[in-house]
Design goal:
about 450 residues; mainly alpha; 30 helices
Length: about 450
Amino acid sequence: MKLDDLEWQFSNYGGLPPRTVRLLLEGGHLDLVIEAARERGEWFCAEAAVRELCRAGEFERAWAVLEPFVAVGWREAVWLRAEVLLQWGRVDEALELVRPDEEGRQSGRVCRDFAELLVRAGRVDEAIDVLAPHVEESWLLSSLVEMTEGQGRDERLLELIAPLAERVRRARAEGRCHDPAWEAQALQARVLERAGRADEAIRILGEDVAARRYLVQNTLTAYAELLARHGRIEELRALGTGEHATTALGHYAKALEDLGRADEAEAVLREFIDATDHPGHRGALVDLLGRQGRIDDAVEVGRPTFEYFDCGNHLEWIVSLLIEDGRPERALELLDGLGEKYVEEHSWWVRPTRLRLLGEAGRLREALAEAAALPADEYAGQASVVAWLLEQDGRVEEAADLLRTAESGSLWQLAELLIGQGRPAEAVAAMPAISAQREEAIRRREAARPREGYEPPF
């Protein structure tokens, strides 16, 4: 076991990924997961096994699983061992194991992790003390707000947040377009709300929005969601249909729907689509119609976006709705109606989606024949969906053989296929060693680098 391999595995979801490990545990293969952690250095196996063992009260076994990872100095293993001690009831030992030294207290991440452990140990005030010096960073302030929810420390949190929120309010007037605590206003409103002061939260955040004393659209979103949660429909209507419609109209429509006024929600969305044709408004209406079971209407609303080349394209979502509605043939019609240029430039999505839809429609042989007619390199690139088609056609061994010879990124699918066939040990063995996966990733990265002297065509 090497520290470099563990760090690569953790950062790149290498080895047996969490989803595959979960399937092994759901199948009752805990001992196999523990063995993979011990013999192969599989961190995600170790982590999942430890949590499973702790749930069963087997703390000594959980401790032993972590031993080799701790021995090489793997930080995540040390912190997980502290969690084991905490659940074991050995609170002081848990805290001392990871208590930050002077250098550690300079790190926001270390203090965040330690504060979370303190909260779980019931030492909330100490947790706030540890993290308070770092709350000028928005993500750490947000973490503190989340971990203290329901802990009866809202007034203390508000004292910490107030000067940060005030500084963000002054940012524009002072010519600043960014502040490290950019989320402070929304977090202040959130803490006020959970402290039972929702009217105050709405008033303060509403004044900030009206005076444009904020830096990011997230503040508008937080205000819209706050209004919706407390049934302030008129204020939400003014926000959603005024100058902030781009951000807030969808929230207003959803609030109307939740009140049983779906017809009004649809009308207001259609009115704005007719006036602006904003793709976000189309997306909100597609969502609304999908929830109402009006899939054909959703298709017509989304249709004008089907050949957009940006994030305003709703075709993928429409295809998903049609599959859920049991109508893959209709989705195929939409794909077959796309323009040649769009298909050519989006073949990475259109081609596997078409094969998948043929499979969903029960046209497995047709899909496999279409895949087989592809050039060799393109066929190899569709290994994942072709293997799924073969499996659906009862040709499991052919699917497994294809995945074994495909790109390394398909190996997790091979593992899951084998697990589904009751062959868990074979599934684990099919995955290359962590070091081999890492070396392959490095080779691919090097191969993808532009050659010397190459100049991009733009």
